Structure prediction request, 781 residues.
Amino acid sequence: MDQYIRPFRDIRLTDVPIVGGKNASLGEMLSQLAARGIRVPDGFATTAAAFRQFLTANNITGALAGLLGNLDRKDFSNLADIGLQARTLVLGSTMPADLAENILAAYRQMSGATPGNASVAVRSSATAEDLPDASFAGQHESFLNISGEAALLGAVQRCFASLYTDRAIKYREDNHYPHENVALSVGIQKMVRADLACSGVGFTLEPESGFRDVIHISGVWGLGENIVQGQSTPDEFLIFKPTLQKGKYPILQKRLGEKEKTLVYADNGTANKDTPQQQREAYVLSDTELILLAQWALTIEEHYGRPMDIEWAKDGGTGLLYIVQARPETVQSRKNPYLAKEYSLLRKGECIATGQAVGEQIVAGRAKILDSPQNADDLQQGDIIVTDITSPDWDPLLKKAAAIVTNKGGRTSHASIVARELGVPAIVGAGSATSTISDGEPITVSCCEGKTGFVYRGKVEWIEKDIDLSRIKMPRRTKPMLITADPAKAFELSFYPNAGVGLLRMEFIITHHVRVHPMALVRFGTLTDEKVRQEIEQLTRGYPDKTRFFVDRLAEGIATIAAAFYPKDVILRTSDFKTNEYAHLIGGLNFEPKEENPMLGFRGASRYYNDLYKEGFRLECEAIRKVRNDMGLTNVKVMIPFCRTVEEGQRVIDEMKENGLQQHVNGLEVYVMAEIPANVLLADEFAAIFDGFSIGSNDLTQLTLGIDRDSSLVAPLFSEQNKAARKMIAAMISAARSSGAKIGLCGQAPSDFPEFARFLVEQGIDSISFNEDALVKGIDN
Prediction:
């Protein structure tokens, strides 16, 4: 029996030549990691010898070699015909009696109480598949919910035949694997009743940037093929490894997916059904389950010694989680994250579709709307494929595409996986892209603007810049820090040379991730505008307490950026909207006064202890407290903007203490923006209550020169290079140093003017914060 069959418990990772990568990995986990609490469904594998015996017994080895020898290796014009003939040969053959009996004997033994009738998953595992240098989504077939002896043998034979799918043949050609050297092992594994619960995939790195300190988990209701096939947009979660290991709350992000379809059991197979609305609006996993899966993923990564791509499933009958597959991640883990090509748009065109961005490139080309691979006769090299979803059958076509746009799918869908491997940008989950984009029209796909990808009509101009970040040497004295606000770019930016984040703008997170005025959530019950109420209800569904929505979403944004740069300092500026800006948030008009000059009015520190906003500030403090105390990201420091007097600064510090943020407890440092002449003139007094300063050169310049920087009439007079502005900044640096307080600058000037950055260094400033596009230039200067 050992020649043709291997129980998973007897398989190790070294058995790849015998049972292929998938089955070797299953055996490795079952035999080596079960003792560490990881559950893997039991099963067995047919061997490479079993496959070769099948070919020999049916006398088709030579015929298959002859067919593949006739393949047109230049244009692959006869690929479909060769593949069909090869599969017909295999499917028309007879399973050898000795092999059939060995398979069925192992099946009966595994079935236990229902011998010969257990429901199993039948998965292909090629002997050259899932190696560190060879992994490709869905090359061979798998069959779920197979029950009964005849059905099992039929599924095994169909797996054998899938070695000759068009995509598998083309993949071996592309990767120079001799066809005769590849055999097909089949894994027969007990089915986890995920049809009654949920399933999904996980990566032990961030799949877009390659950032190693997070675990990315996604999931859908029902069986997991809907994720790979892109039939459902999954829930997505990010877990931070360092705080997971410290026992803190490690979940950085939770994103609710549409989960449109649920794949369930049908008669000896599966069927897709619409997901009930109640389930679409619920996360597939609890926090406890997410943390358990993340701990398992970390254990698996440590055991294998490399980033991993993992499949998981939850049994709806028992409520238990299982790992059903693990393989080395082969895209981001093979890249050098310090080699960067920066793409930036010179202008934005008419946006005709948006979705989740995969990759960071910009491409332009002809849109080709396809319903299936069969209607791709006129697809040309460099076209942009626009379709509803993709499956493994699309793989030969995708190699021609300059980009991929799909209506459905998430970051772990088939289209996303293939796009990463091919190095082409993709936009997935774009909703109605096939309707808003016209077949044949020129379009531009932009994935360089964060996690959201944009499709623009026509060819939009952009520039590309090559950067080798590893060759940039950090200055010894003045620390270069980043100005950032977008959590979507945080992991990518973490590879830049930096000493942390000198300015994290809270306003961006509130505008883009919360969108609702905090006071509209605090006083939701008093809102009379029905349209506003409905909009808030839709955004905050699942939150009976509306204020928790603000706290959770703000905390997620802050935590993502803090994790990306951990353990370096991340200096978070509390909200610095002006009243006219706050009013644009949902519900904001009900809570903001109208001012003649918002630039100099009710902004910054003055809001935090005022009854008009102090409850909103309480929510900001709750979010910060969650990030620092619950999530363990104590590298977050707090900075207070536009603080007019020393007394006001003390009131804000007292207000923070009342809201659970006590200065110097748990290492909390509180800085103040130096952007008002009073901050400079009374620097020693401000230094007595704050831990440091960050010069806001924009506001300090406008108040030194008496210029409203929002006024186009006097804008030409505004310049941080002005003698008076420079003198004020130099005085601030000198005063801070005399007081022993930290001093940095986070204005626009060093990003725009290298000579201004040199001036700051000469004055002895501790740190300069640059915009991402100017950081490298700023360090060099």
In short: The chain has 30 helices and 30 strands. The CA atoms of residues 698 and 748 lie 7 Å apart.
